[in-house]
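We were asked to recover a plausible sequence for a given structure. The inputs and outputs are reproduced exactly as logged, with field labels preserved.

PROBLEM: sequence recovery
POSITIONS: 296
GIVEN STRUCTURE:
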């Protein structure tokens, strides 16, 4: 059965092209998209822009201050750490480990959690009822605490830290998608379509998924930010990336004792984390703003 789409109920078939047209009219949103694309380039190709290898040591140049300091050199733009490694190069390499890991977690949660949430939301039964209450329990436990508990059961590594964060945040996303799906199915026009014999597959494709977009973007934006912070946090407490991996949390951990002697070794990786969070927040807010304006 083909559902007759009404303007006030469903998105038009040329949704993506029209969404991009609306996005282009919002200067702030367009800038945030370009910044995020630049971020993706740094994740994939950041090591090519690095002037030196992440582990290369410059003997005799340990703890050199950044280039804007009187004792700094332009050849080491962000200075060096206590082992003489170029901090600028290590931060560029770190985009792959910190931001790349967060992106993998976010995409995995978006796909797996979205499928499970929609399926659970469209089904009825005691198993779904129990699953819903189980997810409610997870909402009262901090995500980082769950990730720490899971990570302590495995060998410390970046991969295991990613798995721990994924398992900690997945129930939250499933629960949100499940609730939104249930709410959409209770709308009057959806009930009418179901009484008219509309197939569940058509309802999911033409009604539920388009109306889940804003909620999904908001949640995935939050998940990405939390993933960046938690990856760095787990590495900082030695449950994530190990030295000499240039993951930003591990870099801060290795240099935290030098904060009064060489503060740039701690502040610069921290500023990289803030920079990524700022861009992702700008992008998420911009997309949500455009989507909500387009919906109405």
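RECOVERED SEQUENCE:
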């Amino acid at each position: 059965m083909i559902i007759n789409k009404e303007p006030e109920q469903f998105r038009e078939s040329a949704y993506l092209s029209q969404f991009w047209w609306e996005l282009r009219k919002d200067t702030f949103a367009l800038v945030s998209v370009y910044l995020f694309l630049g971020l993706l380039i740094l994740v994939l190709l950041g090591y090519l822009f690095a002037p030196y290898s992440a582990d290369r040591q410059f003997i005799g140049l340990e703890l050199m201050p950044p280039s804007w300091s009187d004792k700094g050199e332009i050849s080491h733009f962000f200075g060096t750490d206590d082992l003489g490694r170029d901090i600028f190069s290590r931060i560029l390499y770190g985009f792959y480990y910190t931001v790349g890991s967060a992106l993998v977690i976010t995409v995995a949660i978006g796909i797996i959690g979205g499928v499970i949430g929609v399926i659970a939301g469209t089904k009825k039964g005691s198993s779904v009822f129990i699953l819903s209450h189980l997810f409610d329990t997870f909402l009262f436990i901090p995500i980082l605490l769950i990730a720490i508990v899971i990570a302590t059961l495995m060998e410390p590594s970046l991969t295991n830290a990613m798995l721990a964060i994924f398992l900690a945040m997945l129930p939250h996303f499933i629960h949100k998608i499940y609730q939104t799906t249930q709410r959409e199915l209770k709308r009057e026009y959806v009930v009418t379509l179901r009484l008219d014999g509309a197939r569940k597959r058509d309802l999911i494709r033409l009604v539920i998924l388009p109306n889940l977009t804003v909620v999904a973007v908001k949640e995935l934006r939050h998940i990405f930010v939390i993933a960046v912070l938690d990856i760095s946090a787990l590495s900082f407490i030695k449950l994530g990336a190990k030295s000499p991996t240039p993951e930003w949390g591990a870099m801060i951990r290795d240099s935290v004792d030098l904060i009064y002697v060489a503060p740039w070794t701690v502040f610069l990786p921290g500023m990289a984390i803030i920079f990524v969070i700022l861009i992702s927040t700008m992008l998420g807010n911009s997309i949500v703003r455009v989507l909500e304006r387009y919906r109405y």
